Amino acid sequence: ATALQSATTLVQFPVGLVAAALSFAVLPALTAAASRGDVADFKRTLALGFRLGLLLMVPAMVGLIVLRVPIVTLLFQHGACAHACTVRNALALQNYAYQLPFLALDQLLIAAFYARKNTLTPVIVGVVAIAFWLLVALPFAGRIGMPAIAFANTALNSGHAIILFVLLTLALGDLGLRELGAGATRIALAALAMGALCWAVAALLPHLLPGIFGLSHLRGQLLTVLVAAGLGALLYFELAARLGIEEVRLLRTILRAKLRSGAAPKPAV
User: Fold this and answer.
1) CA 202, 66, 47, 121 torsion: positive or negative?
2) Model's pTM, two decimal places?
3) Alpha-carbon torsion, ordered 23, 29, 30, 32, to 10 deg
4) C-alpha torsion 208→204→5→54, nearest 10
């Protein structure tokens, strides 16, 4: 129970920061397009949300999986939580993290159904998706235990997103599946390179510079996670831009606009 709770806390951070925020951001545009009956604009807005969601959630998934042990060590391996506790927490985090890209799509799909004034379908699909949880939990929970319970939750949420995607496609036609698949492939390539770099940095630094990056002390744990994650993120976005993922440019534009709007106004002369 402790492992599941700790892993849930970590997984919910990118969900709240990216998936939920993105769904709230696109909901007004989806609602406006649905009110006008502009199906093309509705699908275009939703497809853009899909691509932005994957752009941000795939590296979040990879980062949490690759750096799961250093992250859990940093946040939870204190006091009563020893190394065995960290291993359990990290395993739960790994099995939860697989669902992150699907959660981004799921939040956007729920927003799409709400924009079309259909709040019942996501609820019904939520009940149906319990079957995905049962397919994993019933045969494996008794033998594997906690990891199976965590992965069953991943199966449930991923299944929910897949069913909603199929239903919305049947209602509106193609949602840009080919373009989404092409973009997801390029995102996956950049994320794999990022994961390899994060793993190498996290594995080598504590051995090369144990006084600074040693995992036996809090400062070393923090620096290892920050350096590995920071270098991995820089590589990911650089590769994503070089692979022609247009949403990287859009994301940079949004961030610059936010930074400018948040800057303190200059005093009048």
Assistant:
1) negative
2) 0.88
3) 150
4) 140
